[in-house]
Fold:
Amino acid sequence: VYGCIGLCWLLAATLGLLPLLGWNCVCAFPRCSSLLPLYSKGYVLFCVVVFALILVAILGLYGAIFRVVRANGQKSPRAPARRKARRLLNTVLMILVAFVVCWGPLFGLLLADIFGSNIWAQEYLRGMDWILALAVLNSAINP
Structure:
């Protein structure tokens, strides 16, 4: 468990330090993101890919947890064990749906910024505050 926590902190520190170590666009403005002007589009794409991989890992881990709980619940002939498995499934689905609903618009906007035109990104820059607020809200609604 401590190894996983340490790995999470290491990943966060690495992602945070990369722009300071030179992966930015301070001197190369055409490579800059329109929505995050200090970051290069390559760095923003890298972060989106890392977060997508984290989502895949979350899906896999929650799926494995649910399979174990369901298998243990099916061994038990009692209805309460099945109810616990159903409640776990509902909780896991709520967490995953909340994550996708809260972070999905931001990822979509960042991908549009990377692969779209700067004019399009500037048009949606006005909604950036709401999209960022929705992403931060994920921590508040996560059960």
